[in-house]
Amino acid sequence: MVRVGIIGGTGFGSPDILKEITRKKVHTPYGSPSDLVNLGKYEHIDIAIIPRHGSSHNVNPTMVNYRANICALKELGVTHILAISAVGSLREGIAPGDLVFPDQFIDRTTQRKATFFEGHEVCHIPMADPFCEKLRLLLGGVADRLSLKHHKQGTIITIEGPRFSTRAESRMFRQWGADVINMSTVPEVVLAREAGICYATIAMSTDYDCWHESEEPVTWEIIQKTMNKNVENVKKLLFAALREIKESACPCREAVNLSIL
């Protein structure tokens, strides 16, 4: 049975897309998730939503309990995760308002727990292709049909935050080949793979990062303004994509079984 987890990022933690909503408190071995989990249905599909930064956006990216969030979704039977994230663009061709479905990441975080396996077990989880290919291609196909401006692949770099990048850092990330930048994809995507859950990111470009000197440097106000314009597009994408997610064998679900020492 398919149950889809939605991890709502900046501007998208609301459960208002659901019917028959209940709010559940979940206890995990890793502590409490960011907030209560909103359970409900969209049409016939079981959905679980966690607001990544809390319902009042009071948890900064470094302090998010990523392990508890993913563990809670796993305990609730989630099979697929669609993670929504605001990102800055590092490419002229990815304009504010565009959607990106990343296929690669670069990790620049330094303070986060990135594995469930501590103590007597070590998990060397494969990360060559970190995002679920089936989900990513599904999102791209749906975006095509809805005529949403999008990019079917890209490299997302995750920085520690909560500060934004310096111009020097932003230019360096472009030289490394990163296309968009955020503060939340890692370790979320890694933990999802360890949990055997298919995971894809819907990245919403909100600004040109500060490398783009013809634009004003990114601020929280700019991000919120673009997010508010783009939320309806993301909802359209979600509604259509949810109908097409099917239960099927996937390497994402099996990778952990061959990775534990």
Mean model confidence by pLDDT: 91
Helix/strand-derived category reads: alpha/beta
Series of secondary-structure elements, N-terminal to C-terminal: EEEEHEEEHEEHEHEHH
Percent in strands: 15-25%
Shape: globular
Largest sheet: 11 strands, mixed
Number of helices: 6
Approximately how much helix is present in the residues?
25-40%
Rg computed from alpha carbons, rounded to a whole number of angstroms:
17 Å
Please mark out the parts with pLDDT under 50 across 5 or more consecutive residues, or reply none: none
Beginning-to-end CA distance, first to last residue: 30 Å
Compute the number of strand runs.
11
SSE order and pairing:
Elements (H helix, E strand, L loop, with lengths): L2 E6 L10 E6 L12 E6 L2 E7 L14 H10 L4 E10 L9 E2 L3 E5 L24 H13 L4 E2 L3 E5 L7 H9 L4 E3 L2 H10 L3 E11 L11 H23 L8 H4 L7
Parallel strand pairs: 1-4, 1-5, 5-11, 6-8, 7-9, 9-10
Antiparallel strand pairs: 2-3, 3-4, 5-10, 6-11
Describe this entry's structure for a reader:
The protein is built from six helices and eleven strands. The chain is an alpha/beta fold and 261 residues long. Strands 1, 2, 3, 4, 5, 6, 7, 8, 9, 10 and 11 form an eleven-stranded mixed sheet that branches. The mean pLDDT is 91.
